[in-house]
Amino acid sequence: MSSRDRPELPRRRFLALGAAALLLPSAALARPALREALRRGGHVIYFRHGATTWSGIDHIDWPRERQRLLSDLGIAQSERIGAAFRAANFPVGEVLASPFARCRDMAEIAFGRVEERRELLGLLSDDAGRAGRIAYLRDLLTTPPAEGTNRVIVAHRSNIEEVAGARLAEGEALVTRPAPQGFETLAQWMPEDWARA
């Protein structure tokens, strides 16, 4: 599907909801208020996978040893994020990840469990089903998680950039909350921000 064939109105609506928060640096956000909100649940936290061993585009049909994998830094980022969630008592419900090893591994290291979803494959990795993957992520961001929990997603930069306009670094997260007209962006945090949260 070409860019001119994609529906633009919904994308603009989602971008408008998150634009103001994305302009703020993470230090400017009200950490205590967000910390308490995360403890109550009701949020969707989208992580780009942690730091990797190389840069480039790989394919899901490649064996694990040929894929981009988490580097030592990426493993450490995942461990720190998981420890911060446990220390802050942030309740985690669903943990969904792209089946690429770097995403699955980060989710497993940080949260101790993961459900792989092919619908979270990166948009740059495979053109087939692109529109469906965009719609799937949009649905995850706009549908409230189970009561009293937060939904965690570990996937790729291309997906969240398309749906929310956020360009995440490796290990960075977008904290969102479903809203009547789509979703709200509350914070964009690097791995080290979670310990300070």
Quick recap of the structure?
This protein has 197 residues and is α/β, with parallel strands linked by helices. The protein has one domain: Phosphoglycerate mutase-like (Rossmann fold), CATH 3.40.50. The protein contains seven helices and six strands.
Tag the structure with descriptive keywords.
His_Pase_superF_clade-1, six-stranded mixed beta sheet, Rossmann fold, TAT_signal, His_PPase_superfam, 6 strands, alpha/beta, Histidine phosphatase family protein, 197 residues
Fold and architecture overview:
- The radius of gyration is 16 Å and the shape is globular.
- It has 197 residues and is α/β, with parallel strands linked by helices.
- The chain has seven helices and six strands.
- Strands 3-2-4-1-5-6 form a six-stranded mixed sheet.
- It has a single domain (9-196), classed as Phosphoglycerate mutase-like (Rossmann fold, 3-Layer(aba) Sandwich), CATH 3.40.50.1240.
Q: Helix proportion of residues, in percent? A: 40-55%
Low-confidence stretches: 1-29
Let me know the average pLDDT: 86
- Judging by the overall fold, what is the CATH architecture? 3-Layer(aba) Sandwich
Number of domains: 1
InterPro entries: His_Pase_superF_clade-1, His_PPase_superfam, TAT_signal
Organism: Roseovarius aquimarinus
Protein name: Histidine phosphatase family protein
